[in-house]
Amino acid sequence: MAAPYFPTFLLLIFVSSLGLLLLTLLPAVSPSHPLTTSSLSSSWPSCGPGQSWAVRIHHSHEEEDDERAAKQAGLQNQGQIGELEGHYLLCSVKADTGYFGGIWKRSVQPADVLATHPHVLWFSKERVLSRSKRALAFNDPNYPKQWHLHNKMNKGMDINVTGVWEHNITGQGVTVVVVDDGVEHTHQDIKLNYSPEGSYDLNSNDPDPMPHPDFHSDNHHGTRCAGEIAAVPNNSFCAVGVAYGSKVAGIRVLDGPLTDRLEAIAFNKHYQINDIYSCSWGPDDDGHTAALQHGVIAGRRGFGSIFVVASGNGGQYDDNCNYDGYANSIYTITIGAVDEEGRKPFYAEDCASLLAVTFSSGGAKSRNIVTSDWSIRNRKGCTEGHTGTSAAAPLAAGMVALMLQVRPCLTWRDVQHIVAFTATQCDSTADWGVNDAGFHHSHQHGFGLLNAWRLVNAAKVWESVPFLVSYQSPVINEGVSISAHPDVLVRTWNGTVFIFSLSHHFSSVDSCFVHTVSLTHAHAPIKQLHFPTSRQKAQPLKAEKGC
């Protein structure tokens, strides 16, 4: 990650914090220097609502019209109201008295005097106003079960999004497309936020991505993901989406044979309408990156399409997401899962390419993700059983939508940098290391747990990083053998930031990866490849598979 930007970000936070600190301390350290103002002098007795009048005075050539009006109405002048010139607060001290011609008279109503006074243009008796703080109240019946949005049982173990919503940041103006088995866009929780302009059915080659019922009734995946992102609130149905002000589209591509052509079209379909592509699936092979590369260059009006991909659910089979051509692409945001305790669940895959994690299901006793469900078959339209990294990636896509509402001009690289800067460590038992830029990273959790509040506030002040510049080394031929004892071969290639910046105008190095490795061995497959950096112990680049 780019070291030169780290001090800038910290400096912004430091200056902001310092400003808050000064605002807090100034009144406390300066009690002997009261603020001078003409309004509401503290020398007058206090009076509450029902005992005071707000009055607008038309001044004549004499400057004492406000004092005269107050005295004649049996009131005391508390001074000008704030910065409103000609507006005064008159307070009742003695009930039912008035001063006329040097004589105090009883049974005088201040309102009667003010109503007929020649210099009073307007008056109003103060009353207690009914006001309440903005608070979120959703009538969606399953919202209380959406622990990933607001966790009352386990404080702090949620995505920290409710404060973002209270600032009216809900993903407005952003479109997230779910690339999956279709989206039931007539669903009660989806139809108001559905974007037909961003949708398409690549399996049937028509504009309608409605999922087709099959024998096993398992074409509900895309609808569940769409509900996580943009389920409509306060419709007395099911649940709430993390970016419920955003638009959601659907690309139906997984309900049939998937070819390279369809896959490439899916990642670039309507890329001037769709800002974020949420993909809760991965390829069986190494994937094809040409469409991803084109998306980050030309998509989203040149700022780059945001590709959010799930890391995979093969952890119990020792699968590694480095084998996933989408997960290990520099053009994607690879999202893993943690359970409600912030720990890696049994199904989650490890890999060096993991960028961050967010919440999903855990073991048998853990709570799952509540979201919309297709109603074509079961008519329920809601589920409490969405699981796996398939449920984590849409939450991340929704949080990115919140970021893009406050800063639509963030580039795809900006979003990745902000994720790395703001993610928090969530599991002390994970194998955390510190990379050369000083960032904590683990193969279980990437840079850490996503936090919507931190993401959005960082996006507001973010200084864009430079455009991508890449360097590819020439082919390195070693021509050496791996001995039987020890059965380890260490080969070193030194590439420093100094060399890069000198010859290729690099200002920083974000990522480094091995493009192709060709190994042959007469007797046994290679068990592991390790790719160490200068500050980290060697970590497996790919694990437990033959090369």
UniProtKB/TrEMBL annotation:
PROSITE patterns attached to this UniProt entry: SUBTILASE (PS51892), SUBTILASE_ASP (PS00136), SUBTILASE_HIS (PS00137), SUBTILASE_SER (PS00138)
Signal peptide start and end residues: 1-31
Gene3D superfamilies: Peptidase S8, pro-domain, Peptidase S8/S53 domain
Domain Peptidase S8 pro-domain: 52-134
Catalytic residues identified in the record: D180, H221, S390
One CC-aspect GO term: trans-Golgi network
Statement: the UniProt record of this protein carries the keyword Transcription regulation: no
Ranges for domain Peptidase S8/S53: 171-434
Domain of life: Eukaryota
One biological process term in Gene Ontology: chordate embryonic development
Listed name of the protein: Proprotein convertase subtilisin/kexin type 7
